[in-house]
Design goal:
The complex is a heterodimer of chains A (about 375) and B (about 325).
Chain A: H1 40-65, H2 79-86, E1 94-96, H3 102-108, H4 112-120, H5 129-132, H6 144-157, E2 164-169, H7 176-187, E3 192-198, E4 201-202, E5 205-206, H8 207-210, E6 225-230, H9 234-249, E7 255-260, H10 279-286, H11 290-300, H12 306-328, H13 348-360, H14 366-370
Parallel strand pairs in A: 1-2, 2-3, 3-7, 6-7
Antiparallel strand pairs in A: 4-5
Helix pairs in contact in A: 1-2, 1-3, 1-11, 1-12, 2-3, 2-9, 4-12, 6-7
Chain B: E1 2-5, H1 6-20, E2 24-28, H2 44-48, E3 53-55, H3 60-72, E4 76-80, H4 91-98, H5 101-104, E5 114-119, H6 134-138, E6 144-147, H7 151-163, E7 168-173, E8 180-183, E9 197-200, E10 205-209, H8 212-226, E11 231-235, E12 238-240, H9 244-254, E13 257-264, H10 269-280, E14 290-294, H11 305-308, H12 312-324
Parallel strand pairs in B: 2-3, 2-4, 4-5, 5-7, 6-7, 10-11, 10-13, 13-14
Antiparallel strand pairs in B: 1-8, 6-12, 9-11
Classes of the chains: A alpha/beta (about 375), B alpha/beta (about 325).
Chain lengths: ~375, ~325
């Protein structure tokens, strides 16, 4: 039995299951059991997911460069952390995401075109959270973790075996709401998985600015069990997330996962990472590319046939084309829609302002006509 | 009819909401066994259990943030912020999250949260225990802000706030917690949560007040009446939205308006009311709208707070100044 590790400053026991250089799956005394059901077909599916989400990401970056999106936050390099964790969830579980979880959204069943509508500036959301059980982008870093904990407290009161999972980055661990979320989750034994994608940067600030100890250690002070996983190993991420989800479903409360990964691209399309990191570091992480990592195992098992690879590419191209078409075909909201859904119930001031607005702009006021 | 203090009336309203809707829960610091530092939640944990009335860790952002999550799960949390001056750690969750989630999600998610805040001065408290932060929240789209002034009204208003599908900040005038009034526990409210109320009818001048300043203004009106001046007092009740119709009707009758609140005059609710009434009632006004309120200083130490807080004399002084303009 060999326990693999990856190189992380001050920490070398991150869980890994996919070998770095091909060969048989690594064995882990706890976590191998959590993916014992994963067969060849599942590995191929996961590979296809990784290829598809990377392609959607690239298409979105291209659309931003072409002026179709106002901004895009690429997830290049973080595909395995997102695909592995999202695949551990059930439909009824609820995801409280940050703003870079495009692969998670894709796996929850969000139409990728809808993901883009937010970044285009056509809406503040893009999809109905209750239709896929996943929130829309949370831009204030760390704001979503408390929502996950509250939702988890509700799950517990409902005596349900649903769970909540919240995604956040290394930067978010410095926010006060992070500590409050861990404190509340521990105190109320909330069925929540804290999934930290440590992608090494908060825009330009390296993780060392946020913390002087490995992030995974932050949970111990709250009495929360924590696991560090190789975030570029889709199988290991799946295993540890299943483990954390199982604990939550069994009433054992929250679990903290630090997925160690790397943001290969810029923070957003407005960023210039060459100002704060060097090419050698990026090249080192490129060698740990999450897609190639899985591909080597597929090759070892003889699954990486030209047909399989072509099929994955074809699926990716199909999605990319539909995303592009969907983005270009976006119907922008009507001007007077800014007054909609501010409140759930009628609001006198807003009704007055809306009436002035439609009159000023000469918009046929269907709402008033209906009354 | 039952005679209740304002605090007991809110307690009765909370009990009623807890009893009629299983999704309602109370959460906050010391709201459980202690019943809150002002005993507003007294006995409610004993009656409804620790799952529905519970103490939270001492973290205001955490209280509001987790309540948002509970609301997304289908619950109707009522959060207590122990004192006005302690609400600021939760400001981000209130202003950036709570207020915006309904709009953000194009109406898919509603967040029926009630945030109870004992506010205002006059109880001889230490720093951060006497503030009036309502304008911050009234300025924020997506929130509703109300303030009760009397026991009977508070009993109905807290139930209406909890029943609202929008987030409501419910400001409780802590210096009036012990003021008693007859409360009809079975009455069906005649006023909506966002309606202003004429408390004292008059013909010479209108005073608009809310929360702790309603009693002060009514006392001032009584004093003015003894000198032959008829003052109409309006309890605003809702600070966002504001029932301008009730104010306009009164000003159409009196032609004069004084607005009273404890919060600093500068950019307070009075500024908004003065501006709107000047726009809408310009030709009916006999004199400029006058504002009475706190000064542009931090809330002072309690030994000198009486100089900061508007009292009967300061209200009457404003009445005199208004009437002096012919």
């Amino acid at each position: 039995m060999s326990i693999a590790s990856i190189e992380i400053t001050g920490h070398t026991d991150a869980v890994a299951l996919l070998p770095a250089v091909g060969g048989d799956l690594l064995l882990h005394p706890i976590f191998s059991a959590y993916v014992s059901d994963i067969g060849d077909a599942d590995l191929v599916d996961m590979y296809t997911d990784l290829v598809v989400v990377r392609r959607i990401d690239a298409e979105a970056t291209a659309l931003q460069r072409q002026g179709e999106l106002g901004l895009w936050a690429p997830m290049l390099g973080q595909e395995a952390a997102q695909v592995g964790s999202a695949r551990a969830l059930r439909k009824k579980d609820f995801v409280f995401a940050s703003y870079r979880e495009h692969a998670v959204a894709y796996l929850r069943g969000v139409d990728p075109t809808m993901i883009l509508r937010f970044w285009r500036g056509s809406t503040h959301s893009g999809w109905n959270p209750y239709e896929v059980n996943m929130t829309t982008p949370a831009i204030v870093v760390g704001s979503q973790m408390l929502h996950a904990v509250g939702y988890g407290m509700g799950i517990r009161r409902d005596r349900s075996d649903d769970i909540a999972i919240t995604y956040f980055g290394d930067g978010a661990t410095s926010q006060g709401d992070f500590s409050e979320a861990l404190g509340f989750a521990a105190s109320f034994a909330a069925p929540v998985v804290f999934f930290c994608q440590n992608n090494q940067f908060a825009i330009s600030a390296p993780v060392g600015v946020q913390t002087t100890v490995p992030i995974v250690q932050r949970a111990a002070g709250f009495g929360i069990e924590a696991v560090q996983v190789d975030g570029n190993d889709v199988l290991a991420v799946l295993a540890v997330t299943r483990y954390a989800a199982e604990r939550a479903r069994n009433g054992e409360g929250p679990t903290f996962i630090e997925a160690v990964t790397y943001r290969m691209g810029p923070h957003t399309t407005s960023d210039d990472p060459t100002r704060y990191r060097n090419a050698e570091e990026v090249a080192r992480w490129k060698e740990r590319d999450p897609i190639n990592r899985l591909l080597r195992t597929l090759e070892h098992r003889g699954l990486a046939t030209p047909q399989m690879l072509a099929a994955a590419e074809a699926t990716a191209s199909e999605f990319a084309a539909s995303v592009r078409a969907g983005c270009l075909g976006t119907v922008e909201p009507a001007p007077e829609s800014i007054f909609e859904n501010v409140y759930a119930e009628p609001h006198s001031l807003l009704e007055e302002e809306r009436a002035e607005f439609v009159s000023y702009h000469g918009i046929p006021d269907t709402k008033t006509a209906e009354r | 009819m039952t005679t209740l203090s304002l605090a007991k009336a809110i307690n009765a309203g909370l009990r009623r909401s807890l009893g009629s809707d299983d999704r309602v829960m109370l959460m906050g610091e010391d709201v459980g066994a202690l019943g809150g530092v002002f005993r507003v939640t007294d006995q409610l944990q004993a009656e409804f259990g620790r799952e529905r009335v519970f103490d939270t860790p001492l973290a205001e952002s955490g209280i509001i943030g987790t309540a948002i999550g509970l609301a997304m799960r289908g619950y109707r949390p009522v959060c207590e912020i122990q004192f006005d001056g302690f609400i600021y750690p939760a400001f981000d969750q209130i202003v950036s999250q709570l207020a915006k989630i309904h709009k953000r999600t194009d109406g898919a998610v509603t967040v029926p949260l009630t945030i109870r805040v004992p506010y205002g001065g006059g109880i001889g408290a230490v720093e951060h225990h006497s503030e009036s932060p309502e304008a911050y929240f009234a300025h924020t789209a997506g929130l509703r802000v109300v303030s009760c002034s009397s026991a009977d009204d508070a009993y109905a208003m807290i139930q209406q706030a909890i029943a609202s599908d929008d987030p409501v900040l419910f400001f409780e005038p802590k210096r009036r917690y012990w003021d008693k009034e007859d409360v009809d526990l079975e009455a069906i409210p005649t006023l909506g949560l966002y309606d202003a109320r004429v408390v004292t009818e008059g013909t010479d001048l209108t005073v608009v007040a809310y929360g702790p300043m309603v009693a002060t203004s009514v006392a001032a009106a009584r004093e003015a009446a003894s000198e032959g001046t008829s003052v109409e007092v309006i309890d605003l009740r809702s600070l966002s939205p504001i029932d301008f119709g009730t104010i306009e009707r009164s000003v159409a009758k009196t032609g004069r308006l004084v607005v009273v609140h404890e919060a600093p005059v500068f950019l307070g609710l009075g500024a908004e009311i003065a501006a709107r009434i000047s726009e809408r009632c310009f030709w009916m006004l006999e004199s400029p709208v006058i504002r009475v309120g706190g000064y542009s200083t931090p809330y002072p130490p309690s030994k000198v707070e009486q100089y900061y807080l508007p009292d009967i004399d300061r209200v009457l002084d404003a009445v005199d100044r208004s009437l002096a303009v012919q």
